[in-house]
Amino acid sequence: MSHRLLTVIALLLAGLWGAVLGYLHLNGRIGLLDRMEASLADIRSIVVGSNTPPPVVSIVAIDDRTAAAHGYPLDRATLARLVNAINALKPKALALDILLVDPGPEEGDAALTAALEGGPSVIAAAATFAQSRQRVTNLPDDPLAAIPEADQLLLPLPRFAAAAAVGVVNVATDHTGTPRFIPLISRAADRLDPAFPLRAASVALGVDPTIEHDAILLGTLRIPTDIGQRLPVTFYGRHGSIATSSAADALDGKLPADAIAGRIVVIGATVTGGGDVFPTPFDPVMPGVEVMSTAITHLVTGDGMVRDHRIRLIDAGTAVALPLLLVSLIAWRRSSAGYLIIVLMLVVWAMLNLSAFAHGYWLSAALPIAAALPPALLFGAAELWRDRGRARHFAEQSALLQRIEAPGLGEWLARNPNFLAAPVRQDAAVVFIDLSGFTGLSENVGPVKVSEVLSSFFELIDEEARAHGGAITSFMGDGAMILFGLPKPADDDAARAAACAVGLCERTRAWLRTQAGLAEKKIGFKVGAHCGPIVASRLGTGDRQQITAAGDTVNVGSRLMEVAASHGVELALSAEIVRAAGPGSVLLTAGRIEGPLETTLRGRANQIDAWLWRSRTL
Fold first, then answer.
1. Which whole number is the average pLDDT over 272-299?
2. Cα–Cα distance measured from residue 121 to residue 110, given in angstroms and rounded to the nearest whole number
3. pLDDT (tens digit, 9 = 90+) per residue, 346-371?
4. How far is 167 from 147, CA to CA, in rounded Å?
5. Cα–Cα distances in Å, from 40 out to 33, 124, 342?
6. How is the beta sheet containing 179-183 ordered, strand by strand?
7. CB distance 569 to 612 below 8 Å
8. Which of 80, 102, 201, 232 could cross-link 112 (Cys pair, CB 3.0–4.6 Å)?
9. Rounded to two decimals, what is the model's pTM?
10. CB 202 within 8 A of CB 121
11. Mapping DSSP to helix (H, G, I), strand (E, B) and coil, where does residue 112 land?
12. What is the mean pLDDT of residues 297-307?
């Protein structure tokens, strides 16, 4: 399968996968991702940090001090005194987060009824559901369609309901018990009821709520809501972030007026073991009354998280775009630079997501990760598998091409089969040549074209080596090593090696101009030459052996190619081979040389003197 076809298939599958997840996300049907999203939301909350809530809500807590002084739960008469004490300080509204479903002593109930009538007030109800997964209808034009139907409502006594507005105190928690949403509307078989925070905000603002498809209107204030008219809840910090006073101080007349006047006051229990508590990102024991107070603050000030249908559409779009982008980048450039671009892109996405969260927009983090990670990993694995197959193919091609190595030694080996059966140390000259930039090109032109080009190049090298009496001891990918001094050293080894190096430069330069597609790809070459002692030997076993040379002379000759490349010339030579070639060598007649330059070679502690050769035609 071609790389282009594999990429197209990967892009189609990645886009389809992201679209399916995005569709399910739009309809709130991915429970596993919601669990992941909850954990990621906690992380973002902690990174963003706590902040100070607007001073619109105060809590009067029935705390341990109140319970010690007045008992717990407070009797209705004491509760009536508490309500009267707060109303005397002129709150904007009073919300009683206590279920009043059972009758008490008549005197106390009457007193509490009268107290509730003394100011704008809200009391609590609760909904119960028979199943953990509630039924909802599927009417897209109905703003109440996604609201689950309660099995039963626990309503306050009629006398209290007649004296105060009623709101449902249910919260929607995740698998850890952390409150994530407040259902703003509760539905039973024959009635609709607003949530306790919505009723408190409505009473305080003096407006009735209006329900839209993905929002609640409180006068001119529009509060975006999530699926099922749910309000996302984000906490300001640890418990006590919202101004809290003890009910004991209110009953003793010690409550400061500025903590109550003009605010929405919520009465609820925080006594140890007596009230509902929830874990939050900032606190493992957040009192339920503060959860309600946080939601009321969001509704009155509009500072809550925005996670409505438009945000979910952005999430769905990201779930499609991010995997497509990752797969495209993997297909485009599989290198350290390409992977760095991918990492930078993911970091930018994460920072944008975090920034949006900090500014009140709850973009999903789990959905894009789930949409992008599987396609990217699968496509990356497929590309690695394909690359390994190509590497094996190139290795096979290289093995076939290397069968033509050391042609200058064929006749000698025929006469002396034991030649170099044991390693031999002797003087020799060595020439290295290598194409520059051909490795990257070979990834695109295919193995057949690679074989054709390299065969032509190696034929050129073979001709020059034979012409000057050298032996090609190895073809190395897109280069070769030529040895002068085998089967036995001669006085003119250095001169012939220098002539061969110059000939290779002239012929390779002309050859590159004749190769279609190589000139415009800026394919070049470099040559290095040196002479000195080497160790010649055979490598391999059985019927597949290779004549090679090793030692410092070989290493220096190879590194001189790097010297040539770094100085922008085709040929770099050591001072030893220039001196050994003599003043009448082709180095001076066919070009000009510069040097000597004191040069440091990679991997070698001692410096050498190097000469740079340039053709007269350049």
1. 91
2. 16
3. 999 999 999 999 999 999 999 999 99
4. 16
5. 10, 32, 21
6. 172-173, 179-183, 230-232
7. yes
8. 80
9. 0.63
10. no
11. helix
12. 94
